[in-house]
Amino acid sequence: MRFSFYLGGIFCSEKDKIATQEVSKKVETPKETAAGSLQIKAVTFPECSPDFQDYTPCTDPKRWKKYSVHRLSFMERHCPPVFEKQECLVPPPDGYKLPIRWPKSKGECWYRNVPYDWINKQKSNQHWLKKEGEKFLFPGGGTMFPNGVSHYVDLMVDLIPGMKDGTIRTAIDTGCGVASWGGDLLDRGILTVSLAPRDNHEAQVQFALERGIPAILGIISTQRLPFPSNSFDMAHCSRCLIPWTEFGGIYLLEIHRILRPGGFWVLSGPPVNYENRWRGWNTTIEEQKSDYEKLQKLLTSMCFKLYKKKEDIAIWQKSSDNSCYKKLEVPDNYPAKCDDGAEPDSAWYTPIRPCVVTPNQKYKKVALKSLAKWPERLHTAPERVADVRGGSDGAFKHDDSKWKTRVKHYKKLLPAIGTDKIRNVMDMNTLYGGFAAALNDYPLWVMNVVSSYSPNTLPVVYDRGLIGTYHDWCEAFSTYPRTYDLLHLDGLFTAESHRCEMKYVLLEMDRILRPNGYAIIRESSYFADAVATLAKGMKWGCRKEETEYGVETEKILICQKKLWYSSKQSSI
């Protein structure tokens, strides 16, 4: 389906944090624009109702009743049709303050920024968080680590030495609470994607991002998670309430798909240590013993091996041994090996299949033990770069070098890069993660987004020790409003304007950008003025800059979102 440009494609632009005076050189609204650039009329977007302050368009609780309760699939992504899309600016909550800066934010955030009492009342005995005056404090507790998350992770590190020598770099935490586990691992050089669904009360992902910890809305249900196969070094579930042994172990099959060979799956909570814990689980010892044995049998059938078990923690390792996967080819075996028609990396609205995605034997350097250790891994050309059209070791090295030069230039245009003003960053349409790699020495993290319509480069991003997700920018991103400090895009409108409506992409950028946050929009000269015009209608200030090489065909917009408050009465 094609749209005219004005009806069609605007992609998300990212905001770069910049002092107000830095953005003061406004781009003039084009009236008679020079030949060769897009002409667009000025527009002013209205405020949304205050009821939209935490609006997540594709995971909207108000629309859940339209969808099936089977396997909680109503909590998966269900985006509104075009005629229901909002064309307004999402306001912050009453009393919103600019977020506390990293690293202080790891331990506290403003209550009015995430005004949910429910999680505080329900989880106070687990030491997840507590309200104190105008702030939420995060003591670092959790259901399975009442002695604090650092003590819990120390126990884990004792069991998995690779967590302290650079072997393990990327992790996923399913059912992440307020992301204390992922937050603790940041100090140990491990980058975690914390995953939790949207729900009516527990704004788990919003808390995580407010703290400055990587997180994304999602649930293991009927669709694959938006990550490539063989990507994470480690996966974790701490009493995450996912019914691992139900539905033929289909959720375990998805964990198996996204873990790289040699990667670890860590489980704490039922049924682990059932012998000593069953009385507190409102169950019987026989029931928990049966659950544990069923779990072990399913994991073994998928080529997981029990690696280590101590007290409340059990660890399994995904096999790198092809002889185990060969056994899955036996007729009537369950789970069976996925057939060749099941593309391992297809993960955007792709149903989870009840089969094992087996490691491709052509790869010799995808298994955990074969990768360079962090941080050498960051600049080592991954084996899977050869799967990308035009990809090679040389192309990877060139891209790596190019982004070092570009980020040096960005730093001159936006001195806030590298300061505590910028913590949560998104590269909206990355190739190999070069932008993120060039920012690696700064106190920030980057969510690398690869378009579901682009070449599949996300495995390369993960192989170099970075994190990211597949996404289609014609739709809303899986996050809460006001969760990123800087958005960066490189030719997104040029690439996607034939599919996506420009104003909706920009409005989505506005939704996910924090007040006073920044966008660096690198675009062809054809689109730059039109983007600036629409940005002005969203209360952004933008200025147009030259690229590092001063080419006429490409410009850089440095934009900043203003802090404003709703002029309407909240009904919340």
TrEMBL record:
Localization annotation = Endomembrane system; Membrane
Listed GO CC annotations: endosome; membrane; trans-Golgi network
Q: Which GO terms describe its molecular function?
A: methyltransferase activity
Which EC numbers does the record give? 2.1.1.-
UniProt keyword Glycoprotein, yes or no: yes
What is the recorded membrane topology of this protein? Single-pass type II membrane protein
Q: What general EC class does the enzyme of this chain belong to?
A: transferase
The main location class comes to membrane
| Keywords associated with the record | Glycoprotein, Membrane, Methyltransferase, Signal-anchor, Transferase, Transmembrane, Transmembrane helix
InterPro entries for the chain: Put_SAM_MeTrfase, SAM-dependent_MTases_sf
Q: Which domain of life is it from?
A: Eukaryota
Any single biological process term in GO: methylation
Record-stated family: Belongs to the methyltransferase superfamily.
Specify the protein name: Methyltransferase
Q: List the taxonomic lineage.
A: Eukaryota, Viridiplantae, Streptophyta, Embryophyta, Tracheophyta
